[in-house]
Specification:
Length: 185
């Protein structure tokens, strides 16, 4: 079946490129890589710095589309030019993750990414590991436009998220009135 062979392609051939500004961004980016691995989707992770290796960053961005990538995730801290520098060189969607590695705890990185000038968008996630998780999910949602089997898995994921909240609420829900707190029957 066409969708099966397309899906196995997604399992084997990286369509998502992850670029981190430094190996020290590893802990934050694990929020994205763990998520992609839980969906059995292949990715490539590489390190490049917009400021320390600007030429390498430009080459990675320029080659991304012909290397078969469909979406790029870029994570960096401090004055984080990485996602913007990549977005300047490609029309592939670029998702930015601000890393809280400086004394400003990622506010600096977030503003660098979210305040891109008109014409060069970067889809900026929340600061840190949670933002990294969302970056992976957004990348999967973009891929799901083409790879429909992924759409089924994402819908299933959303259902599981909702069920978890309802189950937890059923366990914890209680009534309070002054002097007493009783579980809701
Ligand atoms: N960084 C590296 N080159 C440019 C930037 N903005 C970021 C990395 C990391 C932080 O600087 O993404 O979050 C500190 O990097 P390092 O290598 O000094 O630990």
């Amino acid at each position: 079946m066409e969708s099966d062979s397309k899906m196995s392609l997604l399992n084997e051939t990286p369509r998502i490129l992850i670029v981190v500004g430094s190996e020290t961004d590893h802990d934050v980016i694990s929020g994205a890589t763990d998520t992609l691995e839980s969906f059995s989707v292949a990715y490539r992770l590489t390190i490049s710095s917009a400021h320390r290796t600007p030429d390498r960053t430009i080459q990675i961005a320029r080659n991304a589309e012909k290397d078969g990538f469909k979406v790029i995730i870029a994570a960096a801290g401090w004055s984080a030019g990485l996602p913007g520098a990549i977005a300047a060189e490609t029309i592939l969607p670029v998702i930015g993750i601000p890393v809280p590695s400086s004394v400003l705890l990622g506010m600096d990185a977030m503003l660098s990414m979210v305040q891109m000038p008109p014409g060069v968008p970067v889809a900026t996630m929340a600061v840190g590991k949670g933002g990294a998780k969302n970056a992976a999910l957004l990348a999967l949602q973009i891929l799901a436009i083409e790879f429909t089997e992924l759409k089924t898995r994402l819908l299933e994921y959303k259902k599981t998220l909702a069920q978890k909240v309802i189950k937890t609420s059923e366990k914890l829900e209680y009534n309070y009135s002054p002097g007493k707190q009783v579980p809701k029957s």
